Amino acid sequence: MGRQRDDLDKLYKTKRWKALRVVVLKRDRYRCQECKRRDVVASGNIVHHVVELRDDVSKAFDINNLETVCASCHNTLHPERNSSNKIIKKKDGVIKFYRNNDFI
In 3-state terms, what secondary structure has residue 2? Predict the structure, then answer.
């Protein structure tokens, strides 16, 4: 998975991504779309893939698969990237997250 993650991360350094990112931010008026769905107005500066790249890399540059989110919402959408969480992957493919030794 580390190699795949590295390959996907390269996408974010391309000119194409950087240009598309600005288009999405402007389209969404730099407002978090997750907060907006809860009738909350919040600024956002992260462009998030609705369908994750590891699930469908063909949607990497699909503007309809991209939305602006705030850091708080992005952390909620990607708990596996939160360094305070321990990730334990079970044999059946189910991922469970633990924090402070308590099951969440």
Answer: helix
